[in-house]
Here is the input.
Amino acid sequence: MKLFKSNAFKCVVVMLSVILLCGGLLAVLSDLLKVSDTERIQRSIDKIYGAGVTEIEQVIDADYKTDFGEIKSCYKLKNGDYLVQSTGKKGYSNGTVTLDISITIVDGTATVKKAVLNGYTSQTLMSQLTSLYNKFANVNSTTVGDVSVVTGASMSSTAGINAVKTAIDFINRLGG
Amino acid sequence: MGKFTKIATDGLIKENPTLKLVLGTCPTLALTTAAMNGIGMGLAVTFVLICSNVLISLLKKIIPNAIRIPVFVLIIATFVTIVKLALDKFIPSLYDTLGVYLPLIVVNCIILGRAESFASKNPVLDSALDGLFMGLGFTISITLMGLVREFLGSGAVFGITLFDFSIGFFSSSAGAFFTYGVFIALFNYCINKFTRRAKLKKGV
Here is the structure.
């Protein structure tokens, strides 16, 4: 058959073979090198508190959504704090910003200890907004509204503030 | 000069990808704020260069000319993904630092350039050595640039603060272009001087 001897057929066969070879290699390695969700959460905890300071004590049911944000997951830590993964809506071009937020209870009110960007679900350049994340330390439900947006990234900042608002609201509803 | 010595000197000096061929400029400018970033990026590129060169050299006789570029890109993308997975698993801090520049290795001109101009025409061992020395040339250049920018920009070397001073300009994008320009000028000045001396010695 002419078709089997043609250059086009050879191209298709070679391309498919390389795709299979590369795909197979990646399938095996992505399974071997997979980072579990627990490992990622522990990395977030280490980023906030330092390596080996605390770890997860209990997973908390986190089915909570508002117009401004959504709780992805919540964990009670061994040091008594909460780690909340919260996504804030209404960002740039209706985008979202997901933050890992550590929350402690001060006088019966949820108060943020530290908020860091969840690097695995966010746009790369969001990691440059460190000045915004630093503003969230010690804010609670009454002071979170005072956090100012970062010039030039006001929409993304709003989404970040919404993420923190949602997390504080969720922990307050939990009753501390 | 032996074949392997030529490959080594080409990669490190005569065809240094960063300072002579001015390839891979994007990570060179963006990631040289710290020396450690340079080492991380350089080693990642070296790994991809060696592996892609070896595989392309092995497959060179069966890859039809019409589809060689998509096949090269596919092979390079596979190894970049492997580096990405490995860094995420074992060195997450470096993975975070390299950020978007890690997947961008796929379109790094050094890798596609060596695949097209060397690996697709030469034997496996030569291609592996070419990948190694081109990668080392890139790694050394961006690490030295990172060292200078980190020292002048924050008074630190490999993250260890030595002096309490900082010249903010060197941490900025403009500082990156300036340092890169100075490095290229110095490198070419030294190479030209060395070549002239060698010629004079030979009496040419």
User: Anything to note?
Assistant: The first strand of chain B starts at residue 156 and ends at 157. Residues 69 and 116 of chain B are 8 Å apart (CA to CA). Helices of chain B lie at 3-14, 25-31, 35-59, 68-90, 92-98, 109-119, 124-154, 173-202. Chain B has one domain: 3-202.
